[in-house]
Amino acid sequence: MDARLLDILVCPICKANLEYHKAEAELICKPCKLAFPVRDDIPVMLEEEARHLDAQET
C-alpha cells in the first residue's frame, strides 16, 4: 500500500486516522473498532464491508 495514500486516508465514519496491518491486509480504526479490508492494494472503505474487531484486537 502506498505510504502517501495512508497519510490521507481516514475512517469514513469517525474521520480518525487508520493503522495499516499488512499481514491481515486491513486498515484499522481503533475508535470505531472496525477493520476495513484492502483488496489488490485498494482500500474498501465501506462500513458494510468492514469487520468488527473483538476485544483482543483493540
UniProtKB/TrEMBL annotation:
InterPro entries according to UniProt: Trm112-like (IPR005651)
GO cellular component, one term: cytosol
Leader sequence segment: none
Pfam families in the record: Trm112p
Stated family: In the C-terminal section; belongs to the UPF0434 family. In the N-terminal section; belongs to the LpxK family.
The protein's name: UPF0434 protein PROAA_750025
Organism annotation: Candidatus Propionivibrio aalborgensis
Encoding gene, per UniProt annotation: ycaR
